[in-house]
Amino acid sequence: MNNRINAVLCTATVLGLGATALAVPTTAAQAAAAVQPRQFSAHVVHERVILDFGTEPLPKDLKVHLRKKGTTARVATVTGFTAAPEGVQTAPLKLAALGEYSVDVEYDGPQGEPVSHKDKTSLNYQVRPSFTNLKASKPVSLADPQTVVSGDIKLYDPRNGALKPYPGTFTARTGTVTTPVAPDAQGHFASKITVNGAESGAKAADHDSTYVHLAGEANGIKDQESLPLPVTPGAAARITLDSSTLTGPFGTSGKIGGTVTWKAADGTWKPAPAGLRIAVNTSPTEAKPLTTDGTGRFEGSFPLPFTDDAPWQVRTDSPWVSETAQNVTVDTTGGTAFHEFTAQLYSYKVVGVRAKLDVVEIPSGTPRSSNVDIQYSADGKTGWTTIGSTSVRTDPGYSRTEYVSGEAPDPGPGFVRLQYAGTANFRGSVTPAVRLNERKATAISEFNAAPEPVKKGQPITVTGKLTETDAARTPLVGATVHYYFKPTGSTKWQGMGSTRTLADGTFSRKFPANETGTWNARFLYVTSPHFFSLSRYDDVVVTP
């Protein structure tokens, strides 16, 4: 592949009840903050209220109030907070009575005004299950996938911290297999767990561990804990690819396939367990990574486009196995790819489009200039029609990034895209569909310049009315209307100033009568969701 473009171009304990509360001091930075957050979230975890203000500083005089649900009297107030992984949090709340509580959040706004959020979240203050002392008896491996998970599950009373044995059963889940577990009379349990070698945590970042997920429930409250299980790494494995070579046009995604097997203690090769992740050049943390099925096989279009001829490396991404990565020889052929596509409907009823287009290894026989079509579809999926075009240089033998821009008449509500059709031996490409911003038609439905005729030096009053063109003729309020005058015999319009429309859409301005000519009003520089509009022309004769 010659002359190729690199792909780069392209996060208080309430000690008093009723009106009495002690506060944990805030930091100096928190005390200095005086910004009212536009929005924030609140939730409760194990009697802690957690507030997330995003990247904004904490507001001044931040408080959390608690009320028995359905009442107005506050039973506790918290003014001290500590850092939490997702914001700030209170200390575990200590309240006098169990039950449902409403949580209100209060702080000072930017001008010192009080801001209150009623019922921002709620607290179910009940005796709840609690897991402690969790551990696994030994590491797991493909050759020995069993371990014993043990620990204690008790009923925790948040009022005084008292613990009692948990009655009944809870569940333990590995992968898709859920098993009921019954603790003894003291709340202790020990349960044999079998893993398949590919379970992971709830997040993609947990793919290097395996977990057992424990869940118990009491009084409508769940306690869920995920215990990472130690893994004995490195079972000998091998990857057998369907093909060690890949060829594809620039910008397309490569499809790979193969099988993963691992070597058992008796020397036999067994298929890798279902769910083992496959990496190509990088860790597979994408939304839909390639994984093995129950036979150890993987196959799919990996989200890694052809950009050059550098070889790809295929490996597993798991602590369970250890293998030699397999290299894939890559041959990227000529093609194109769009980037950074934008489309906008302007006020003068024209669609403007812009994008970057990579053109790579243009083959001989390609015209030196090619069309890029501006296309329209009402639903963004079907019925694409070309409404305009622009050109791009496609000199044979070259690779470059072209900046593509163009305009087309307003096609109506819907979607637009850019398409370069390409040729039989040079791959074309198309942008994603973009919905056009919607605008409403307007009209200067009334317009008059008077009196006419008028004596020189006397005032001329230019009036009119600007509305939408809907059935109600909705007036545009506060819109800027510009006045223009063209003297008789001239071809050049002169800007005469502007005014804003009133509540009923009307506008008016006086001018001195200097010479005979034609008056016109225009709604031009539109940043609001409206199209431009022009008034009729009105001739005024100026007499000596």
Describe the overall structure:
By secondary structure, this protein is mostly beta strands. It has 1 helix and 44 strands. The strands form 11 sheets. Strands 17, 19, 20, 23 and 25 form a 5-stranded mixed beta sheet that branches. A 5-stranded mixed beta sheet has the order 18-26-24-21-22, with no helix packed on it. It is flat and about 110 Å long. The N and C termini lie far apart (80 Å).
Detail the topology: elements first, then pairings:
Blueprint: H1 28-32, E1 41-45, E2 48-52, E3 63-68, E4 74-78, E5 82-84, E6 87-89, E7 99-108, E8 114-125, E9 128-136, E10 146-156, E11 163-165, E12 170-174, E13 177-181, E14 188-194, E15 210-218, E16 221-229, E17 235-241, E18 245-249, E19 253-263, E20 269-271, E21 277-280, E22 290-291, E23 297-305, E24 312-316, E25 321-322, E26 326-333, E27 335-345, E28 350-360, E29 369-377, E30 385-393, E31 400-409, E32 415-423, E33 426-430, E34 434-435, E35 442-450, E36 454-455, E37 459-468, E38 480-487, E39 494-500, E40 506-512, E41 517-523, E42 533-534, E43 538-540, E44 542-543
Parallel strand pairs: 17-25, 18-26, 36-44
Antiparallel strand pairs: 1-2, 2-6, 3-4, 3-7, 5-6, 7-8, 9-10, 10-11, 10-14, 12-13, 12-15, 15-16, 17-19, 19-20, 19-23, 21-22, 21-24, 24-26, 27-28, 28-31, 29-30, 29-32, 32-33, 32-34, 35-37, 37-40, 38-39, 38-41, 41-42, 41-43
